Amino acid sequence: MKLVIDTDPGVDDVMAIALAAALDGVEILGLTTVFGNTFVGQSSRNARYLLDQLGLEVPVFEGAALPYEEDSYQPSHNVHGPEGLGGMKTVPDIGQNADESAAEALVRLAKEHKGELVICALAPLTNIADALRLDPEFVQNVGRLVIMGGAFEHPGNITDHAEANIYHDARAADEVLAAGFALEKIGLNVTLKTNLTLADLEGLARGSPRIGGLIAQISPFYIDFYRSVGYDKGCPIHDATAILACTHPEKFTFVESGLHVCQKPGTFGMTRADDTRPTAKVAVDVDGPWIESYFKDRIATLP
């Protein structure tokens, strides 16, 4: 599988990228970065740092810094920490971004691997929408687009109605959902069935001292946030669950539905069914225990 990960690292993005690096048969062609959990410059720096820790020679293509029609953005530092990696106060700035923008790289890679490229989007969908605007053939060239986002028939995590990745650029998200990609949407209704506890983190650090240890170092901040909002199961592994939807879709139950993103006050960012839109596969269930076990097993194969 030829994979591009669109990302805003972010504690659970770190888990997802590390997992992708540990999966057999997956070739990561690039990371495209965007604002979201962090400012876009932090996203790129964190991505490069993680790739260095993983020992991977993978390019980082920096993308959008702001949502459509907005002139400022404030990251979710209360969720992921001031630098995006939990309690880490400084993150080494290693290497450089590639020369291409995220949108340019997405368009090029989709052309080079027409019908084969899988994009796993773990962040606001601005880079994907930018690529659509850059090349109308992008949607046909992409093999699959797997999105971690939305709260389909489920409460949101940033408002009562909306999930953060969709909410942070609802306009871009709606353009993507209307475009006609071969699309699978992995939302809160399934990712909240996959969790890591503090005991799990200790096990990751024992099995994989460097990468598991990094995850164990940064994740307690994330767990503390969830505890502060009354969630006592540890921390969901939202983004890693979406990575496994790319490689193990049989572990998910899907329904087919068109989708749109509400733009009106009160329900802004809400993901809703829309039978006038192109059909997507919407995950409605997942084998959570398998996801948790497989994630831990694969991380244990890393240094």
> What is the number of domains?
1
Mean of pLDDT: 97
From the N-terminal CA to the C-terminal CA, the straight-line distance is: 23 Å
Count of discrete alpha- or pi-helical segments spanning 4 or more residues:
13
Number of strands: 12
Radius of gyration: 17 Å
What best-fitting shape do the alpha-carbon axes yield?
globular
Structural class: alpha/beta
Please indicate the percent range of residues in DSSP E strands (runs of 2 or more): 15-25%
Characterize the structure shown.
The structure is a single chain. This protein has 303 residues and is an alpha/beta fold. The protein is 40% helix and 17% strand. Helix 5 (126-134) packs across helix 8 and helix 10 packs antiparallel against helix 11 (211-228). The model has no long low-confidence stretch (mean pLDDT 97).
Which secondary structure elements does this structure contain, and how are they paired or packed?
Layout lengths: L1 E6 L3 H11 L5 E7 L6 H15 L5 E3 L14 H4 L21 H11 L4 E5 L4 H9 L3 H4 L2 E5 L15 H4 L2 H9 L4 E4 L1 H4 L3 E2 L1 H10 L3 H18 L6 E2 L1 H10 L4 E6 L1 E3 L9 E3 L6 E7 L1 H12 L4
Parallel strand pairs: 1-2, 1-4, 2-3, 4-5, 5-6, 6-12
Antiparallel strand pairs: 7-8, 9-12, 10-11
Helix pairs in contact: 1-11, 1-12, 4-5, 5-8, 10-11
